[in-house]
């Protein structure tokens, strides 16, 4: 197998709440005024990423995994997930508030949708003044209070709102009621799943006057009604992989790159880098590859030794 860092054609999604920052801020080739999401690496059904560079350009990620499962995914990941790519990587631009929503856990998602659940994390890349996120309840709640607050349109009053700035990280376990607020650009890392239960959508309608579907009843037993501590603190030591999140689904490190870093891997897992600020070079076996803000690359598990160099903020993700 030819080894090199893979990039993919972005899968762009128009959303009622989307805007134009994915183009102006991250240089994505958007053509509408309401692009909300760029799916960077995905194997969600009907939204499978296509390789954009090198020898395998034009092949889908699934095709490459089928051909070289362990070399792409890693020995440990292949053993755990077979030929399934277990994570989904996105950038989001929220010009308006997203709907208030919740994601089911693995057990519920498997039973209802034959899908993974959707544990995810957010890294705030950019935030307008006074931008906020909604994460969980202010105080311990209950199914009855949840239903009553929806009936009275007061659900915002019982949810916890966090003012955010660039660099803030939130870890959203399944069951956490949440919403991304207007004026934010987010890097999102999650399990491979597109299962979302929409609870409240601020009575919005689309261009045709239609409301989006709500899933109030499905959400009822998916919600964690306890108070959660979703915001995560982490260190930012230069030229080092600083651990941010380490859960059963993924590990995310933050690398403030200012110079160079030699990286060694063990073939157990693929690695993904999301460049959330700046630019950097990756050097592998005599070749140099250049990346900038808003680009996402997949390092194949067989690529065990390489060097990164530049001035950049990187999210480094693997399964450990």
TrEMBL record:
Signal peptide: none annotated. Residues 244-316 form the Mannose-6-phosphate isomerase cupin domain. The keyword Metal-binding applies. CDD domains: cupin_PMI_type_I_N_bac. InterPro entries: Carb_Metab_Reg_Kinase/Isom, Man6P_isomerase_Firm_short, MPI_cupin_dom, PMI_typeI_cat, RmlC-like_jellyroll, RmlC_Cupin_sf. Zn(2+) binds at residues 103, 120, 178. Its cofactor is Zn(2+). Pfam families: MPI_cupin_dom, PMI_typeI_cat. One of its GO terms (biological process) is carbohydrate metabolic process. Binds 1 zinc ion per subunit. Residues 7-115 form the Phosphomannose isomerase type I catalytic domain. Keywords: Isomerase, Metal-binding, Zinc. SUPFAM superfamilies: RmlC-like cupins. One of its GO terms (molecular function) is zinc ion binding. It comes from the Bacteria. The active site is at 198. This is Phosphohexomutase. The lineage of its organism: Bacteria, Pseudomonadati, Bacteroidota, Flavobacteriia, Flavobacteriales.
């Amino acid at each position: 197998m030819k080894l090199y860092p893979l990039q993919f054609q972005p899968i762009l999604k128009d959303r009622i709440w989307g805007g134009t920052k994915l183009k102006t801020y991250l240089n994505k080739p958007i053509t509408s005024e309401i692009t909300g999401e760029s799916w960077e690496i995905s194997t969600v059904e009907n939204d499978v990423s296509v390789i954009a560079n090198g020898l395998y350009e034009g092949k889908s990620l699934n095709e490459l995994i089928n051909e070289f499962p362990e070399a792409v995914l890693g020995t440990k990941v292949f053993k755990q997930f077979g030929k399934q790519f277990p994570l989904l990587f996105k950038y989001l631009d929220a010009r308006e508030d997203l709907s208030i929503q919740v994601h089911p856990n693995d057990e519920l998602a498997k039973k209802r949708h034959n899908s993974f659940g959707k544990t995810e994390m957010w890294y705030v890349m950019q935030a307008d003044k006074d931008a906020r996120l909604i994460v969980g309840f202010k105080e311990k709640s209950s199914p009855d209070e949840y239903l009553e607050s929806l009936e009275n349109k007061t659900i915002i009053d019982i949810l916890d709102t966090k003012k955010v700035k660039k660099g803030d990280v939130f870890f959203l376990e399944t069951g956490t009621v949440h919403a991304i607020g207007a004026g934010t650009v987010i890097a999102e890392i999650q399990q491979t799943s597109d299962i979302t239960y929409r609870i409240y959508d601020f009575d919005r309608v689309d261009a045709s006057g239609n409301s989006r579907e709500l899933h109030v009843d499905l959400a009822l037993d998916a919600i964690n009604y306890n108070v959660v501590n979703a915001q995560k603190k982490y260190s930012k030591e230069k030229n080092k992989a600083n651990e941010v999140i380490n859960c059963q689904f993924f590990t995310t490190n933050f690398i403030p790159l200012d110079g160079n870093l030699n990286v060694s891997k063990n073939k157990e897992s693929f690695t993904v880098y999301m460049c959330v600020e700046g630019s950097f070079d990756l050097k592998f076996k005599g070749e140099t590859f250049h990346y900038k803000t808003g680009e996402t690359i997949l390092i194949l598990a067989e690529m065990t030794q390489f060097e990164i160099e530049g001035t950049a903020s990187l999210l480094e993700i693997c399964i450990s």
